[in-house]
Amino acid sequence: MDGVPPLPVWAVGDYAGPVRDVVVAWKDRERADLDLLLAPALHRAAAVVAPSLRAVVGSAAVLVVPAPSAPGARLRRGREPVGVLAGAVAAGLRTGGVRAVVAPALRRRRTSRDQVGLGARARGRNLDASVRARRHARRSSSCVLVDDVLTTGATLAASERALASAGSTALGAFVLAATPPPDAVTESPHDTWSPEVHPADTLGLA
């Protein structure tokens, strides 16, 4: 976002090769058994990051907010995979001494399109119009976002803006995997959002 420092993003791995295959199978091929592999990886990552967050928030609670899925994707999958990840992140933060609780504070309007196949600019437009904070979302809260894959950053950017509009602050985000940005950037800085991506763990799949 223009004038706003990049949101720190902690990624377990690169969205390529075996990692990509596992994440796609988990999300879209009904491989819920892979929860047993992926959730512990984010638990470990969150436990490693927890001391840095605790230095910022002290004894205050941190809300772990899953990025909202499009209603169509949720119906197609029959469950909320990112909710599983959010639970793992919250548990990992608690292991590291942070008071963390899962809070599904965001929603997607039914008119929004699925993000698959959209470019960075189209993703941003689609999500800016659809991601909203729920009415019961706590104000003046410190939050961390959780998503499965970071591609263009549009989902996290829209989620961060929605939380800010509700009076909350996103301190960072955890993802399973991140796609490296393309070498050539054609959009202006005012149209893009570039998070800082930090390696946080490994799935041991490379």
Automatic annotation (TrEMBL):
Coiled coil: none annotated. Residues 182-206 are annotated as: Disordered. Belongs to the ComF/GntX family. This is Amidophosphoribosyltransferase.
